[in-house]
Design brief:
The chain has 724 residues and is of the alpha/beta class. The chain has 32 helices and 9 strands. A 5-stranded mixed β-sheet has the order 5-4-3-6-7. The longest helix has 25 residues, at 204-228. The protein is globular, with a radius of gyration of 38 Å. The two termini are 58 Å apart. Residues 1-59 have low confidence and may be disordered.
Length: 724
């Protein structure tokens, strides 16, 4: 039998080791990176297989570091701790203080497999990158050397930038940023910093620097886009936040693609003003326009909520701006106007004001009472009503009143039964015929007005459709309440009148039991009208007529909006003579409005000279297109600008005219989501930055220019090369 024990090395093995000159104490770098990984890839597998074979294991065999391993791993060397235990360390990771056992206390796994694993680790690869930077130090300036070392961490820095950008565009607290980084590190997300130390840029302070860089990148792009637009309009609104700080929110409507692309409306800035006076707002706006290098001659429209500080005849903000731009169109937000028209009409009728108070009293009565909510829920199930909540009227919200009345109509069977059993005073009020009549009337009228308001709240309202939309609403109100049978065609009112012909209101539950409620024909407190059916119908007609009159009185600028139909071929008459006379009237109206002031391109004679060919061409080419649709097809064609230079420039000015400031209201809703009770001390700079990224920067992460943000961040100040 062959002798047992450790096999002896043959002469061939010893001579090869001697030939390569490997010594026990060598811990210097003998070969380049490419040579190291050539060995790792196995190019010399056939030559070195015997050299690197591991010793057979046995209980009596004690593993030690083999000097021949340094052929493949020149950075490896052996040390002994205080107990005499041999360990392997990595000279590169020790030098650059990496977070790995090979750099701290050494690895006790004395095997080639452990060296292979470490050689492919992220920590070791980054040590190699820093080592290469040191080699180039003698040939590069120190600033360039530092820049290269910072760029070595670019992938990891961009990863944390992505995390912070995600926090900003989703209105999350900035403190969440570190937790998201920790989560990604826990899930082994590629290119994340290996540690959570302060130098790893995963703290809130570093995150704010990333956001500043992102805002600066997209702020420059936005300024360039607006500057290249031939015309623009301002949309402004003033409000006070939860900490009683007054802000002026600024949006700008402009044309993209140097004036040949679609219309866009973007959030620009949140300005803090000293007070709510027009002078303070004027100073802030002028300073902003100067900072953006925008000429006042390109300012076409000014949209606001109609406050006296905005539209005052003598010293309002629009009046001050018109001194620089005499051609400026001052537009009172059409959504505000519609809401004000409804409130104006209701103010003439004490009965309707009493209904508003009763609706809010119902909301307060239900309150947060678990018992009442439970009882109402059971009754809703009994009457087969979809589970709904009672709503409250908010006078600062345009659509709330109509929604409240419609909800009360749906919940009325359950409410009446509940009050009949437990709340006699509420039941007595609800069983007055005049109360039920007004609730059903308001539900029908306000539903139609809410549809109109929702149309007016779109980001880009086609001003050519405003007059038509308004006429349709007025015609429906005329038909249903002022012609023929009162309420015919109105869903809630007609149903109510048919049910109450006998003076009772009846509802059947799911078991077939009919619940009858006697209605009393009496007047409401402080009402000068009796509660008879005829008086109620007269009240309803009077209210509808007041609504129509208020709408007509508040939309006095419809001629300008209708004249813009000159650029909407679907509004043309089919007959040629009628079409020519119609379009000539429209163009004359537009020229009269824009021929003065700084818009010198509006030459009446030249516009009229281009009109016939323009109308014929656009009508034959795009007969069914509205103004925006026709512009999408014509605006990008150079031929149209060459053939009709004056009319095309006039078209550009019409496109940016603002109709609604609903986008400003949505901006303040965004402000309140960001600056909530838990973040009430957030600074104006940070608040403005977060609003800009959330409203005006791209939300699709694959559309974000991460390299540009990284470059901007790197140039903000001198960066230190930190191990991540």
């Amino acid at each position: 039998m062959p002798p047992l024990g450790r096999p002896k090395k043959d002469l061939k093995q010893r001579s090869l080791a001697d030939a390569f000159g490997i010594s026990q104490c060598s811990n210097q770098l003998h070969i380049s990176e490419n040579e190291v990984y050539d060995h790792v890839d196995g190019d010399h597998e056939s030559d070195s297989a015997e050299l690197l074979e591991e010793e057979p294991t046995s209980k009596r065999y004690k593993r030690t570091f083999k000097s021949k391993w340094k052929m493949r791993f020149p950075w490896a060397y052996a040390v002994k701790d205080c107990n005499g235990v041999e360990r392997i360390k990595c000279s590169w990771c020790v030098k650059f203080k990496r977070e790995t056992p090979f750099a701290k206390y050494g690895s006790t796994t004395l095997q080639v497999s452990a060296l292979n694993i470490h050689a492919t680790s992220e920590a070791h690869k980054f040590s190699l990158q820093f080592l290469e930077g040191e080699r180039k130090q003698s040939t590069l300036p120190i600033t360039k050397h530092v820049e290269l070392m910072v760029d070595a961490q670019k992938g990891r820095i961009i990863s944390v930038i992505e995390n912070m950008y995600f926090v900003a565009i989703h209105d999350l607290p900035l403190e969440v940023y570190k937790s998201i980084c920790d989560l990604n590190r826990y899930k082994n997300t590629p290119h994340m910093p290996l540690t959570d130390e302060y130098s790893a840029y995963t703290n809130t302070t570093s995150g704010k620097e990333f956001l500043e860089a992102a805002k600066e990148v997209y702020w420059r792009k936005l300024k360039d886009e607006i500057f290249q637009s031939p015309y623009y309009s301002l949309l402004l609104d003033e409000s006070t936040d939860r900490t009683m700080v007054q802000h002026l929110i600024v949006y700008i409507t402009y044309l993209t693609n140097e004036g040949r692309g679609p219309c866009a409306t973007k959030f620009i800035h949140l300005l803090q003003i000293k007070d709510g006076t027009s002078q303070s707002m004027y100073d802030a706006v002028i300073s902003l326009l100067a900072d953006m290098n925008l000429s006042m001659t390109k300012l076409v429209g000014f949209g606001s909520d109609g406050a006296s500080s905005m539209r005052g005849i003598r010293e309002g903000l629009s009046t001050k701006l018109r001194r620089h731009a005499p051609h400026l169109l001052d537009i009172h937000c059409i959504a505000h106007r519609e809401a004000l028209a409804t409130n104006d009409a209701s103010s003439y009728f004490e009965e309707l004001q009493a209904i508003d108070k009763f609706a809010n009293k119902i909301y307060s009565w239900l309150g947060k009472s678990t018992k009442r909510h439970g009882e109402l829920k059971e009754l809703m199930e009994s009457f087969q009503i979809t589970r709904l909540e009672v709503l409250q009227i908010h006078h600062i919200r345009w659509l709330s009143r109509g929604k409240v009345m419609e909800r009360l109509v749906k919940l009325m069977p359950a409410l009446l039964r509940d009050w009949e059993l437990v709340e006699k005073k509420m039941y007595e009020m609800a069983t007055i015929f005049q109360v039920q009549f007004c609730i059903h009337l308001l539900a029908d009228v306000l539903i139609e007005l809410n549809k109109l308001n929702q149309k007016f709240q779109e980001d880009h309202v086609d001003i050519t459709s405003i007059g038509t939309t308004l006429d349709i609403t007025i015609s429906l109100l005329h038909k249903r309440f002022l012609r023929g049978t009162f309420g015919a065609g109105a869903m809630h009112t007609s149903s109510f009148l048919s049910k109450t012909q006998k003076g009772t209101l009846e509802f059947a539950d799911c078991t077939g039991i009919v619940h009858v409620h006697e209605l009393r024909f009496e007047s409401l407190p402080k009402s000068q009208r009796s509660g008879t059916l005829d008086d109620c119908i007269m009240l309803g007609k009077g209210f509808v007529m007041k609504v129509i009159d208020s709408l007509n009185a508040r939309f006095t600028d419809l001629p300008i909006f209708n004249a813009a139909k000159f650029f909407s071929p679907r509004n043309y008459y089919e007959d040629m003579d009628d079409r020519d006379s119609q379009t000539r009237r429209w163009l004359t109206c537009l020229c009269e409005k824009f021929s003065g002031g700084g818009l010198l391109f509006v030459d009446n004679i030249k516009c009229m000279g281009e009109m016939d060919e323009f109308i014929c061409t656009i009508y034959k080419s795009y007969p069914k297109k509205h103004m925006f649709g026709a512009w999408d097809l014509c605006g990008g064609e150079i031929e149209w600008f060459e053939r009709f230079p004056c009319l095309m420039q006039l078209w550009q000015a019409i496109l940016v005219i603002p109709a609604s400031t609903a986008v400003c209201e949505r901006g303040f809703s965004k402000l309140n989501r960001i600056k909530n009770d838990d973040r009430s001390k957030i600074s104006l700079k940070t608040l403005d930055m977060l609003m800009f990224l959330s409203l005006s920067a791209p939300h699709a992460l694959n559309e974000v220019d991460w390299d540009a943000i990284y470059d901007e961040w790197k140039e903000m100040k001198t960066r230190k090369p930190l191990p991540l």
